[in-house]
Design goal:
- The strands form six sheets. Strands 13, 14, 16, 17, 19 and 22 form a six-stranded antiparallel sheet that branches. Strands 4-3-2-1-27 form a five-stranded antiparallel sheet, with helices on both faces.
- The chain has three domains: 241 residues, no CATH class; 270 residues, Immunoglobulins (Immunoglobulin-like, Sandwich); 142 residues, Serine Threonine Protein Phosphatase 5, Tetratricopeptide repeat.
- The chain is of the alpha+beta class.
- The radius of gyration is 34 Å and the shape is elongated.
- It has 23 helices and 27 strands.
């Protein structure tokens, strides 16, 4: 390879663009905007986004643009978290902490910092600390066919003349000679007529490593014939990956319509009406059923379509604040003009349900309008019956029911068998309505069922109005009770309804109360969006309930349900991973490997899979396998001290002291507060007489991902 012809080659690219007035990039900005554009997002912002940002004239517009900038990159739009933004700032923090040491500039400004922020963790890193060459790091990445010409590529960084920061190696401008220490002294036995780069390449291949020699020639692993020019083009493609992953045309749209862009969520809270009821299904599962009626429904308009995108997030916590259940829905809505007119005259209702294990909880519901940035929230105390004691559910009042729901593979909220209830969210009724009252009684004894009675007593403004007496044995169910009450005798006003369960002698055993209003003016209808769940025969329920038991710490019931879910659907990795969590707790490590290993070849990007397999393999002394699984986990999540320490322990068990030290030192570098690991490193060095890990005999040390 003759580097002279490339070093004397000047590549000129002329791009003809439409003439337009460029923004004033010397505009004086407040410090936070200056730092954002010139430091925080400098490597990932596209030229178009940068142009638009400098054209914005107010801080309000800049704040809104910055919000939109991150939203465009959010991998899970609609969720409270923006994982891309979190990862980006984590990378900046890491580069400043790691690559800025020993140099007068911040880590994010270094070449390594620039590529780490742009590309994230390398698949792995090689470090060369040899007396024949200056310090070198080689970072290996997987390329994307969508953005690059190669499926794999590598970047070489070196300390020029052995000091200062690590610079990016340019295969055209630098060449192998720039990596060799005192090349003329070391190459006296090599043909002096050869190019210095060719002589350096011979030395590197002979004295250091042929793999390292390949890396000085080609950015494409396994292909030494790649020319320096093509290698430099691969590096250029890698640099622009963050730009290629985003469609920045939104920026011009923002600039055009910024006057009508909504402000942030914090000032767009809207009220709501909510009803939450616990109902036991025919299967025996208890469901939390809820109706949410937002105060407003804002929509956007485009090409004769009205649309919005709602996101609901539910969280259930126990008395200790421990999360027992967490879930959510994305609800895209598209309306025609005539449908929008109907909604304007009626209430908009979201109905949903989910199974929940017995206990006392706090229910939190958040609904976000992703188009207009409005939100509303609910918090309620709820209780799912525990045990077989005699209990009565809350009362559900409805203006409409369907007694003959057709068989379906799906179930919706407020459904019990073939009965569908349409609750009144605010318990308002018209004088000529029929009130449908539904409730459940759990733990009824045979004697109470045969001889007990129910009283339905109404009070108007604290004055007794009416009582309806019914015998329990008049109902077809021992648990589900539905009563239909005509309201033609009810004058307009506010009423209190008390339902009492009485023994044969008339003594009250249980009771529940509910308020209702009877009106004469028309009541708006409802536009209902009802979310569905699978049939209760689906293993989904064993999985959901098993995870809830696991979160609650009830391992026995968690094992029962998750084993059932996995048995019925062994191909589902989520079911298998949750089951594996229980098995790890029960120390059934062989079973963990048995159920998870089949996923290794098909599920390459699941951290939990590789961590669980690493843990199980380590516990049964399969240390080499454990290390390989742990390293796969590190590729996905970066430096995690728990895993690095586990790798170190595995290497110790294998007697590979140098690799153990490397893992422990990397862990300590990630979290210097680990005094136990610091002492372990010192003890290992004392007992083995190993000093600095870079003075080891091996010239090529594999360093775990950053």
């Amino acid at each position: 390879m003759n580097w002279k012809r490339f070093k004397g080659f000047l590549l000129i690219v002329v791009i003809i663009l439409p003439l337009k007035l460029l923004p004033n990039q010397n505009l004086k900005l407040e410090k936070k905007y200056e730092e954002w554009i010139k430091e925080e997002v400098i490597y990932i912002i596209t030229p178009i986004e940068k142009e638009v940002f400098y054209k914005l004239e107010t801080d309000r517009d800049r704040d809104l643009f910055m919000d939109e900038f991150w939203r465009q990159r959010d991998p899970t739009p609609g969720t409270p978290r923006n994982e891309f933004k979190e990862e980006h700032y984590r990378r900046i923090e890491y580069t400043n902490k790691t690559f800025g040491r020993g140099t007068p500039i911040k880590g994010w400004r270094t070449d390594r910092g620039r590529f780490y922020i742009k590309l994230g963790n390398p698949a792995y890193v090689e470090k060369y600390m040899d007396s024949d060459i200056y310090p070198v790091e080689i970072w290996y990445y997987s390329g994307s066919p969508k953005f690059m010409r190669t499926p794999f590529f590598r970047l070489l960084f070196f300390q020029r003349h052995g000091a200062g920061e690590f610079e990016l190696y340019n295969p055209i401008a630098d060449g192998p000679a720039s990596l060799v220490v005192y090349i003329e002294q070391k190459m006296r036995d090599v043909d002096e007529t050869l190019d210095p780069d060719e002589r350096a390449l011979i030395l590197i291949e002979r004295e250091v490593s042929p793999y390292f020699a390949d890396a000085t020639v080609s950015a494409r692993p396994g292909d030494r014939n790649t020319s320096p020019l093509e290698s430099q083009m691969i590096i250029g493609e890698a640099e622009t990956i963050p730009h290629k992953k985003v469609d920045d045309s939104y920026a011009y749209e923002f600039l055009e319509h910024k006057a009508v862009v909504e402000v942030s969520y914090s000032v767009n809270y809207m009220g709501n009406q909510t009803r939450v009821s616990i109902i036991q299904d025919q299967s025996g599962f208890f469901f939390v059923n809820y109706i949410l009626v937002p105060e407003t429904l804002s929509v956007d308009f485009f090409k004769d379509k009205y649309f919005t995108h709602l996101k609901t997030s539910v969280r259930v916590t126990d008395g200790e604040g421990k999360t027992i259940f967490q879930g959510g829905r994305n609800i895209p809505i598209e309306l025609r003009k005539e449908e929008l007119k109907i909604i304007e005259k009626n209430s908009f209702q979201i109905l949903d349900s989910f199974p929940l294990i017995p206990g006392n909880y706090t229910f939190n519901l958040l609904m976000e309008n992703m188009v207009t940035k409005e939100f509303t929230s609910v918090e309620k105390k709820i209780s799912v019956p525990v045990g077989n004691d005699l209990q009565m559910s809350s009362l559900i009042l409805a203006r409409k029911i369907n007694r003959d729901l057709p068989p379906s593979e799906e179930r919706t909220a407020f459904q019990v068998g073939n009965l569908k209830i349409y609750p009144s969210v605010d318990n308002t009724f018209l004088k000529n309505d029929r009130l449908f009252l539904f409730f459940q009684i759990y733990g009824l004894s045979r004697n109470l069922k045969e001889k007990g009675t129910l009283d339905f007593s109404f009070y108007k403004e604290d004055q007794y109005f009416l009582t309806i007496h019914k015998k329990l044995n008049e109902y077809n169910s021992d648990r589900d009770f539905l009563e239909e009450i005509p309201l033609e005798k009810f004058k307009p006003g506010v009423y209190s309804l008390k339902v009492s369960l009485r023994e044969q002698g008339g003594e009250e055993v249980l009771s529940q109360r509910e308020e209702l209003s009877v009106l004469t003016k028309p009541i708006p209808g409802a536009w209902v969006v009802a979310q569905t769940n699978p049939s209760t025969n689906d293993p989904y329920y064993s999985y959901i309930l098993g995870v809830q038991f696991l979160n609650k710490g009830d391992i026995q019931n968690a094992h029962k349900e998750l084993a059932k879910a996995h048995e019925r659907k062994p191909e589902d990795m989520n079911y298998a991973l949750s089951y594996a969590r229980v098995l790890l707790t029960l120390k059934n490590f062989p079973r963990v490997r048995e159920i998870l290993i089949p996923f290794v070849e098909t599920k390459k990007e699941n951290f939990g899979l590789f961590f669980s397999l690493g843990k199980a393999s380590q516990e049964i002394s399969e240390f080499k396998e454990a290390i390989s699984y742990y390293q796969e986990a590190l590729k996905l999540k970066g430096s995690i001290t728990l895993i690095l320490n586990a790798i170190g322990e595995c290497y110790l068990q294998l007697g590979e002291i140098e690799q153990a030290l490397e893992a422990f030192e990397k862990s300590l570098e990630t979290d210097p507060s680990q005094e136990s690991i610091r002492r372990k490193i010192e003890d290992i060095k004392k007992s083995t007489n190993i000093g600095n890990r870079f003075s080891l005999s091996g010239k090529n040390l594999t360093i775990f991902t950053h």
